[in-house]
Amino acid sequence: MPENSYDITIDLLARLGLIVTRCALIDEIISDILTKLIEAHRAPMYVITQNVSASTISDWLRTLGPLLEARDLLDAEALRNTLALADDVRRERNALAHGVWQDGPEPNTAIIRTIRLDRVEIIKEELCTVADLDDLIERCTEALTEALALRSKI
Question: What's 1's DSSP letter?
Answer without folding.
Answer: -
